[in-house]
Amino acid sequence: MAETVFSKILRKEINARLVHEDELCIAFHDVAPQAPTHILVIPRKPVESLAVCNSDDKALMGHLLDVVRQIAADLGIAADGYRVVINCGANGGQSVDHLHIHLLGGRAMTWPPG
Ligand code: DGP
Fold first, then answer.
1. Beta bridge partners of 40
2. Most informative mutation of 8, 11, 40, 47 for ligand 1 (most atoms within 8 A of CB)
3. What is the CATH number of the domain that holds 95?
4. Does the residue 110 lie in any domain?
5. How far apart are the C-alpha atoms of 98 and 32, rounded to whole Å?
6. pTM of the entire structure?
7. Closest atom of ligand 1 to CA, residue 93
8. Does residue 43 belong to any structural domain of this protein?
């Protein structure tokens, strides 16, 4: 997988406002927040996108979602609700080619997305 800005954040070569770290993933505030709370959860494993995950990644994917749920509770956005987004590939609007889950909360979301 090609180097991305998230590889540099994982290696702590670029600062990010971390909210969670464990052996499988890290989570940090998005640099361009689209909601009062906007967190990115990324695997340490260099996976380009959801499209290239396979059945070996099932446990990792479950873990990432579990971390999203925990962070939403810890940051106090769970009671009012929140949105979880994975942009995948060009049509999905993915701009950083390292799998990441967006956690957005703190305001009411609209639908459909743009
Ligand atoms: P996506 O469009 O789904 O690939 O989202 C990539 C997100 O990554 C976007 O919301 C902005 C965020 N982002 C890009 N570069 C940086 C960075 O250097 N630091 C942080 N914290 N977030 C970044």
1. 28, 102
2. 40
3. 3.30.428.10
4. no
5. 17
6. 0.98
7. 2
8. yes
Q: How far apart are CA 51 and CA 12, in angstroms?
A: 26
The question of whether 98 is a catalytic residue gets the answer no
**Residue 12 placed within a domain:** yes
Total domains in the fold of the chain = 1
- Per run of 10 residues, the mean pLDDT along the chain (length 114 residues) is 96 97 98 98 98 96 98 98 98 98 98 94
Predicted local confidence at residue 1, as pLDDT? 86
The length of the chain in residues reads: 114
- Report the pocket of ligand 1 as residue ranges, CB < 6 Å: 5, 14, 16, 28-32, 40, 87, 93-96
* Residue numbers of the domain that contains 37: 5-105
What are the φ and ψ backbone dihedral angles of 43, each rounded to 5 degrees?
-75, 150
Residue 59 lies in a domain: yes
